């Protein structure tokens, strides 16, 4: 018998799962309840991160007749089932793990048999998969139906302890494993006393401030829509915010960037948007942990932090960022609330004051399925000046020989002319939806919708399109890093290195 020693250097594992997949799993695990356990192999995508290990569940390999010993009250995987799991390793780059239940009220500590099983499987799967990780999770319910779980992930000779399960769907759930629960029992200490959150508890109940306190929200883009969103999140006393924006402020940002002060206008070089947003959050609420990056959604260290989040707010108007967020939603199972604003005027009269909110979750139509991004725009955004000149010449040559030049060059896109009142409204709305999803207090009413505040009844339009079944977003759900080759966009070599701001 082997003893399994968990890493004690602070690194841990997170398990992300879709809500429909979780339901399927629970039906299977608890079918012999309350007395007997049951279990299954499952496939997962994974990412080795700076904080430990991410597991994104793809699906279960359900047991068929004879795979598990029905007579035994505990789970015993028979050779045929193990063989099927092992041979499936050739068909995909994913990891294989085991999940099993313990009888009602039996706790979720691994038994000696579990230790033997995990030692055996971790070595066996590592050998047959050329070094892929192995995961093992234990779930149980008590008499009142409350769930508890524990887990461990084996990678390159180390065992990481499972700390958190994040369920992703129309509603979001963050749950602590037993160990994490006892190590850091939810306390009220870092919740401001006095009246700061009185209205929240009056409206949404006593539990709400603690739930918000445990949440982590990512915000990509820290200007017009990003800063009002962050302002709302800071006042809600969120636990942690991960924010990223590659740019420095310009004077013209002042009328819509809530983090920018008059004194910032005279500073040279101009401060990073991410630095100002961080300052604003801490001025409102110093209790919030802020990880802020003058960097890009395409940076690996930024992605490491974003995959820990309950959800991400997309506050960038760049096509490449929207496409990247679509990939993150699908491949890493991190839902994204994407915000966009568009305004137009003719002869100084507004004819468009449009806002758009889209909720990208694994399985739902991605930005490509919704025609929300174009390859031409992404090519433009991610090119150097020299490449842009080259593409413009190629387009001109094509036009001269009677071919459509737009495939090479769509022209320089006009700047988005948005003003502060609309971006602030939408940013605040997006943060509100984020908060409500985390609390389970409300859902987003449509997968994707637009409205124009200048039109009667706001001219609300919803997009009910089904996903395009041919699109990559339907094929690599939960594949994490193992779908790297199928990402829409990767970071250009010449872009600046990310910088974490403190
Ligand atoms: Zn067990
Ligand atoms: Zn798609």
A few lines on this structure:
This protein has 502 residues and is α/β, with parallel strands linked by helices. Helix content is 28%, strand content 24%. The chain contains 13 helices and 17 strands.
List the helices and strands and how they pair.
Blueprint: E1 12-18, H1 19-29, E2 39-49, E3 52-61, H2 79-88, E4 95-101, H3 112-128, E5 134-141, E6 147-155, E7 158-168, E8 173-176, H4 178-183, H5 198-204, H6 208-214, E9 216-220, H7 226-235, E10 240-244, H8 273-284, E11 289-294, H9 300-306, E12 311-314, H10 319-331, E13 336-346, E14 349-360, H11 375-381, H12 385-400, H13 420-439, E15 448-452, E16 461-462, E17 499-501
Parallel strand pairs: 1-3, 1-7, 4-5, 9-10, 9-12, 10-11, 12-13
Antiparallel strand pairs: 2-3, 2-4, 5-6, 6-7, 7-8, 11-17, 13-14, 14-15, 15-16
Helix pairs in contact: 7-8, 7-13
The structure holds zinc ion (2 copies).
Residues 100, 102, 111, 114, 138 line the site of one zinc ion.
Superfamily at the CATH H level of the largest domain? NAD(P)-binding Rossmann-like Domain
Regions with pLDDT < 50 over 5+ consecutive residues? none
End-to-end gap:
47 Å
State the shape: globular
Amount of helix: 25-40%
Q: Which structural class fits the helix and strand makeup?
A: alpha/beta
Radius of gyration: 25 Å
The CATH topology of the largest domain turns out to be Rossmann fold
Q: Strands of the biggest beta sheet: in what spatial order?
A: 16-15-14-13-12-9-10-11-17
Summarize the biggest pleated sheet: 9 strands, mixed
Mean pLDDT across residues:
92
Order of helices and strands: EHEEHEHEEEEHHHEHEHEHEHEEHHHEEE
CATH architecture of the largest domain: 3-Layer(aba) Sandwich
Count of individual helical segments: 13
Question: Which CATH class of the largest domain applies here?
Answer: Alpha Beta
Bound molecules: zinc ion
* Total DSSP E strands: 17
Strand content: 15-25%
Summed up, the domain count is 2
